[in-house]
Amino acid sequence: MTFRKFAVGFSLALSLALAQAAQAASVRVWEGTISIPTYLLGTEDPNPQFPLVNSNNIYPYTALDDLTDNREPKTYRAIYLENEYLKATILPQMDGRVYSLYDKVAKREVFYRNNVIKYGMVGLRGAWISGGVEFNFPNGHTTDTVSPVDVRFRQNADGSATAVVGDVDQVSGMHWEVALTLRPGVAHLEQRVTLFNSTPLTGLYWWWANAAVPAAQDMQFIYPMRLANPHSHTQIWTFPMWKGVNYSWYKDVHHATSLFGVDVHRAFFGAYYHNSDNGVIHVADYHQVPGKKTWTWGNAGDGRIWIHLLTDNDGQYCEIQSGRFQTQLSQEFIPPQKVESWTEYWYPVAGLDGGFVDGTPQMAINVIYPSSNAAGKSAVVLAVSPAVSLRGAKIEVKMGPKTVKDFSPISLEPLTTRKFTVPVADAAAAKKQLDVTILSADGKTLLHWYAGDPVDGNPNPSVKPGEQEVNQKPDGELSIEELFLRGVNDEKEGRKLQAASIYKEVLKRDSGYVPALLKAAEEDYDAADFQDAEALMARARARDAKDPQVGYLSGVIYKGEGKSRLAQDAFWSSLRFGGAEAPALTELGEIAIQQKQYDRAEELLRRALSYNPDDGVAQSNLAAALRLDGHLKEASEAAGLAVEKMPILPYALAEQWRVETALGAGPAASRAAEVFKSVVGYRPQSYLEAGAWYRRLGDLACSDFVLRAGTKNLAAKDVSPLIYYYLAANAWDEGNAEQASAAASEAAKADVEAVFPNRPEDARVLREVLAHNSSETHAKYLLGNFLFAHSHYAEAADLWKQAEGEGFHYAVLYRNLGVYALRVQNDPAAAARYYASAIKQAPEDFRLYVDLDEIYTQLGQTANREKLFASAPPRVLGHDTVRARRVLLNVEERRYDQALDALKEHNFKPWEGGRVIRELFVLANLEKGREAFEAGKFKAAEESFRAGLEYPENLGVGKPEHPQDEEALYWLGRALDSQGQKRQARSAWQQAVSQMRAGEDEAEERGGGPSGFYAALALDRLGRSEEASRILDGMASELTTGRKSAFDYYLAGLVKNYRKQDGQATADFRRALELDPGLWQARLELQRKGEPE
Fold this sequence. Notes:
Layout: H1 3-20, E1 28-41, E2 67-82, E3 86-91, E4 97-103, E5 108-109, E6 120-123, E7 126-128, E8 133-136, E9 150-155, E10 161-168, E11 175-182, E12 189-196, E13 203-205, E14 208-214, E15 219-222, E16 227-229, E17 235-238, E18 241-242, E19 245-246, E20 257-261, E21 268-273, E22 278-284, E23 291-296, H2 301-310, E24 317-323, E25 332-334, E26 339-350, E27 358-359, E28 363-368, E29 378-386, E30 390-399, E31 402-412, E32 418-424, H3 427-433, E33 434-439, E34 445-450, E35 466-467, H4 480-492, H5 496-509, H6 514-526, H7 530-543, H8 548-561, H9 564-576, H10 581-594, H11 598-611, H12 616-628, H13 632-645, H14 650-663, H15 667-679, H16 684-697, H17 700-713, H18 721-733, H19 737-749, H20 760-772, H21 777-789, H22 793-805, H23 811-824, H24 828-841, H25 846-859, H26 862-871, H27 874-877, H28 880-892, H29 896-904, H30 916-934, H31 938-947, H32 966-978, H33 982-999, H34 1011-1021, H35 1025-1037, H36 1046-1058, H37 1062-1075, H38 1080-1088
Antiparallel strand pairs: 1-2, 2-3, 3-4, 4-5, 6-7, 8-14, 9-10, 10-11, 11-12, 12-26, 13-25, 14-24, 15-21, 16-17, 16-20, 17-35, 18-19, 20-23, 21-22, 22-26, 23-24, 27-28, 28-29, 29-32, 30-31, 30-33, 33-34
Helix pairs in contact: 4-5, 5-6, 6-7, 6-8, 7-8, 8-9, 9-10, 10-11, 10-12, 11-12, 12-13, 12-14, 13-14, 14-15, 16-17, 16-18, 17-18, 18-19, 18-20, 20-21, 21-22, 22-23, 23-24, 24-25, 25-26, 28-29, 28-30, 29-30, 30-31, 30-32, 31-32, 32-33, 32-34, 33-34, 34-35, 35-36, 36-37, 37-38
């Protein structure tokens, strides 16, 4: 059935349920604390995560990559919601996640509850935790997944209670809120999602609610899908069965697997535990939330290892996820000022005898047919697990047009399963024709299910299972449009710099191609490079002056430059030619406020709100215009409405505070001030968001008001220098040079650690500061950070060098100059000098040692590598990444036992999918074994090769279903063969071949080492030379097709080296290192050949 069918009757049914629960106590909501044992995080990375060095695109956030084994009890802030059926625990300090949803009737957790906070390297910033329900916007395992978000809670007039969590994403400037509600007499958790692109530009986003459920042998994913995408651009599987595996059962899935439902026209999914006969269901309108994902680590060793990495005693978990889009292969675009909202529901189910075939916000149902060997007259059982109370309901059961059973009137109580027996003469016919409708007392349809419908409710799927065709033509063979769309695809898939490069290539082919000009101009706007952005838009207007997108973006750019008249003309042009009304009118309203034309601003903003009534920024703008026009009562109402629409939007809260203060210093003003401080005002970004917004409106007094409050409300160490720089810029604009100088002086004394400007307004402020005081070194450093993050590398480096020359000696500045020297200028020698200076300033920053060791390796300076580690503090040497680099050095210098000892002494915490630590373990063992083999010590070699097959738990990498141990097995066979153990040798080689074959069918890329190469060598040893040659030829031929990676050249070099084509092999290894100087495998092969690198 469709969501719309039951949505029609839901409000009435809910009203009935609430009326029946009128005597029940209201839902409780309160703030408290919860103590959770926590493995502490070390220091955040103080170095900015520029896109050039971190492809996760997390700037201006810090990386959280310092995981420790230090376990301590820690007290967290908690928001509790509780009614007679459920109790929810929400952690604002952990993304606002639902940490626990407890079923009070069954006395069990609805989701997987992790009773310890144990970070694993899974999130965009690194650290991530499992358990509960995680909210992800605008990306997956997102930037604030283990960080504080804003929260407020309320008791509602109808007796329900709501907690609202959310944040302004600092990468995109977009806002998200989730309102979690429990209602009296109702046993589901209501999740109202609001996503808001509060910026003037198109944004990129997705949304996924990621619920963890306990993994168990009896756990089954209950997903109404026939087709599934295994996180692949090229594969579509059937579900639940694919190539002999039933992917609905946890016990049957042996490797990490993501599956996304394809073309599913059903509103529900969930998980069910057959032994305990209970589970959890999720319900949402599939038109709005089509994404349905299963995830499991798999029950092989590489999945089980994550039990230890993410928890102490709570076992494995799986994930059931709902998403705004069908898959997580890419993000999608959201227009400026767009608000998207919908509601989802989670609730426990039980007593359904094996799962459910349908679900609505009110109930889940299972249809249980008689066994196939049942003799004589049989019956179908309907099991209904309600989430609401219903009186006088009716169940109609039909076979075709004939009613075979009518149950009425019936009563249903939340979390009390009822079963209804329906006699059927023909069980086989029932499986095709059974038709079940559940109606409320007034005849509204609450649930309808028909056995003859496809499982996914969609008779017309858009794809077929199997291999999918994709465009793999080289860039040079694509048309301009095709090349542009490839850039769009790269952008959606997070390859920001690659997309920008493609857009530039498009403009080389056609300098007036409007879509690429728009992309390039948006990039320049984000970089506060308004002059270049304006020039790009002039080219776009020359091609098509009537394009409404050209007019709108021209207006945004002119407005950013302060060219209000030109901006107004451009916005009106966009509107005349059919552009989106709401964003253009909102921008025009802001310009009118800047020009103090408040009546005109009110008119424009009311028009904008008529097109986009949920826009919290436009509503806040309207409140500001009314306040500035002296209409304080109306302004208060408008601000209150903004807060009602978006209860934790910083602009709305700031304006409510400002309006109530303007009305007088009474209780309402005090309340508004306290709400801002407690909900969003615990961190500097909220003051900067509100201060920058007021500055954009030209309301400098309010900008000052909020920013000064930040200097008082925040601890002194938390006051960002940007707050003072904004105050300085405001003062200069207000003609108060003395006040401006005082604020700039305070900024110069403030701590710059982890201060990474990202708003275009930040850059404008910093440029204004430097225009008044060109020797302001902190402003130069911060503006350099902004510019480098937005690909203006040379200008950024010039500012950093000026700051350093004027006496600003700071580790992060030197590191940044090192990045510029290495990544932009390709000057590793200069980069090494900068990194060495950074280490002198910050000898405890372990990340600097990793980077500098990589640079010294590229330079071939082994002695400096040795000195670097010899001088490092013990704590630095203990970090995973430093230890790994030192292990590699020891292997390269043939100190194999030292390398292996270092690997034994430490508990490693790899990234999800990370294999490097075990690769180093294998490398050390195989190199040790090869040295023994070459010396004729075949037994010792055998022992080392066998050791290379092990998976020590402390390395954090478990043995997969299909290991990639072909290299170790090949060499083991060689050692056994040399000892005369021919049968055992052949067995090892055959195992290498079998591993290769077993891995060929996996959906995910195998990655890692040159497994296929060594499997081919094993085939050669087994006398299957033609088969081996075909594999080796394929590896060598990779260099003749498509884009060639460093790893392609490395593999080709291995093949040519094996075939005694020494010169060509050396050239391939060197080319591999040119493309990827960190590819240590190629470097080792050159060392083995005695060739200079």
